[in-house]
Amino acid sequence: MKAVWRLFHFAASTTLSTRKSKKIITRIYQRQQLQALLKQAIGSRYHDKLTAPLRTLLVLDIDRFRQVNFSLGYTSGDHLLEEVAHRLRNVHGCDLVVQSGDDEFVLLIHANTQDQLSQIIQSVQHVFVTSFIVMDQECFITASMGISVVDISLATIEQAMHQADQALLTAKRTGKNKLVSYHSSHVQRFSNQIQMETELRKAILENQLILYYQPRLELSTGNIICLEALVRWNHPKLGLIAPNEFIPLAEESGLILQLGEWVLREACLQKARWLEAGILNYQIAVNISPCQFQDESFSDKAIQIIEQTGIDPAFLEFEITESSIMQNMDTTVAVLDKLCTKGISISIDDFGIGYSSLNYLKQFPIHCLKIDRSFVKNIHSNKDDWAITNAIIHLGHALEVQVVAEGVEEWSQLEILKETTCTTIQGYLLSPPVSAIEIEQTFHRNNNRPVMIS
Asked: How many Cβ atoms from other residues are within 10 Å of residue 252's Cβ?
């Protein structure tokens, strides 16, 4: 459970006497309070155990809720939480609904059959399918969810809480916007966050980090035009660790600044090595975290690294999330102008899931829009996702910038994108992220010609 509690939300209530007539969303500030509430709820349903034997604990966390507060304000964030709570309260089958953190809710679910349990869980997921209206602003939000698998009784409450927490952590670290049931493999590789942070600091200093590269393909020519640099942690004992396992901690601890500088420097050095070898004459895209971009010395540090490594800035593209550029408009425009003056390209990553003002968007010196993979995923089966994707593509053309569809994994998605005027794709259908050596081997196998897809 989260350790930081927002004390200005509605007061905690530990009364469950009205639970059967109308569930109350209880706000708690300590884990012990949650245990007490669960014990009370389970005890009150003890005699129902024979008729409703299935009971599970579901923990959900709203994805990117901090960006809602940043973009719309804390008052809007509170209104959004109230609306989420209202929808969860109306899910039939939830014995108890508790708000256990800033944007975290705990649900005790009781069902008669496995099918009924599945239906209740689907109802919880359905809460986030339709949009929310917050202060006259329509927005879509997603949630990561973790479910315990132990049979909950008065004796197994702590175990169920631990399982649900671990499953939720796995959901958030493997892409968010998903539901994960607990499995023993979800136990963290590090005993605690302090150990992980300490080892990550050493990893940056001792060169345990490596870059993988995922290609971007231009549909009109069938040629690779860009490689996105993605960091991995090659731990000496634990092996290769994916970024979703350590990037959140790096951002929380402030290590993301050092990590980001390492990634940019290594990407520049690798590009210099390829140029010297006369191969892979592609642009390199580097992700810039929100923390990096908001650092007042970011642009100066980036330019210094580029000058030190001696590569042409035109070979670089900085991928900046939509939410990052909307924080301080005047500063954002000044930073982007400074980078573009040096010759660096700018792309907006995860486009479509933030809260951009189109009026401001036209002021930014951008070169590329990357459509968020959540829209591309169901483009072949969801007309709304197709409509949004198509709208972004046309917006990109109107702004005269490249448009990239991220997360293309199926041929059916590619065929639909070909029918639109989408210029570029990226995803596992083309290639997963691979090491520099694998990229080089593929290049040589193709007789030094760009990789093509039919």
From this structure: 12
